[in-house]
Design brief:
Blueprint lengths: L1 E3 L6 E7 L1 H16 L6 E6 L6 E7 L8 H5 L2 H70 L2 H23 L3 H21 L2 E4 L11 E8 L8 E6 L1 E4 L2 E4 L1 E7 L4 H19 L9 H7 L1
Parallel strand pairs: 6-10
Antiparallel strand pairs: 1-2, 2-4, 3-4, 5-8, 7-10, 8-9
Helix pairs in contact: 4-5
Length: 291
């Protein structure tokens, strides 16, 4: 390769190369022309019958290639590649930062899920223990729930025993009656401490929610539909009806005039059958005069 003197603003390069190399150079130059490079003159001439030729290419001093890599890649492409590399590097750093942040979030979420699972296991164990305790307490209530009531009723049993012993030793019925009345009063007080209260139904209007009618009688002692007699007393347990009162309900008596009319109609028929004249009725005035 030899350098040839040229003009002031351009340098000329002259060399002998093969035809295939010339074709490759032409294609490279055409490609560079498409990319709007500043290529001014391209001269290709045959050097003889052989395949070598003399090629003259005019380049600007700024674009004189120093290395084959720089000859193939223009400065704009190098700058674009460098900018693209910087952009990719920035994107990579951003992706790595987001990845680290995501991993931290995943780690925190995993810790929270682990704590939630542990809390769930503890709550399930507490619930199972509570269920067992509740079942045990329920069984104890069923077995020993009446213990307090029995403690209050035992003195009543003691009083009844004392009354029977006193009645066996002394035939004093008045004292025996008084002792039984006191024992009944203590029994009623013991039931009252546990919410058991009796109620009286005699003379009250019949209420099917509280009373149970076992009989109806004709009487004028109380109005019709009222309780005339209480056979069994009713009781409440904390405002709940435990046993209704068994009562006898009054019914209005039949009219007496309805029974007298058939009797008055039977008397003239009897007089007609015997043939005897009927006695005249005496009025108040006639009876008063005879007196």
């Amino acid at each position: 390769m030899r350098a040839v003197a040229g003009s002031n603003d351009k340098s000329r390069i002259q060399t002998d190369i093969g035809q295939d190399v010339i074709d490759a150079a032409v294609r490279s130059v055409e490609r560079r022309m498409d990319e709007e490079d500043e290529v001014t003159v391209i001269e290709v001439g045959a050097s003889g019958p052989s395949t070598s030729a003399e090629t003259e290419v005019s380049l600007s001093p700024e674009e004189t290639p120093s290395t084959p890599a720089e000859a193939e890649a223009p400065p704009e492409d190098v700058a674009a590649l460098r900018q693209e590399v910087e952009t990719l590097k920035a994107q990579l750093e951003l992706s790595q930062a987001k990845g680290r942040e995501m991993m931290e979030r995943l780690r925190e979420a995993h810790e929270r899920a682990k704590e939630a699972q542990e809390r769930t296991v503890r709550h399930a164990a507490d619930l199972e223990n509570y269920r067992k305790r509740a079942q045990k307490e329920k069984e104890e209530v069923q077995r020993f729930g009446a213990e307090k009531l029995l403690k209050d009723l035992l003195p009543v049993m003691d009083n009844l025993d004392r009354a029977l012993e006193a009645a066996a030793k002394s035939p004093d019925l008045e004292s025996f009656e008084k002792g039984v009345a006191m024992t009944r009063k203590s029994f009623e007080d013991a039931l009252g401490r546990h919410g058991v209260k009796g109620f009286s139904a005699k003379g009250q209007p019949f209420d099917p929610r509280m009373h149970e009618a076992i009989q109806q009688v004709e009487t004028a002692e109380v109005p019709a539909g009222h309780v005339v007699q209480e056979v069994v007393r009713g009781f409440y347990l904390n405002d709940r009806l435990v046993r209704p009162a068994m009562v006898v309900v009054a019914r209005a008596p039949a009219e007496p005039a309805a029974a007298a009319e058939p009797a008055a109609a039977a008397e003239p028929a009897a007089a007609t059958d015997t043939g005897a004249p009927a006695a005249p009725e005496q009025t108040e005035n006639s009876s008063g005069g005879s007196q």
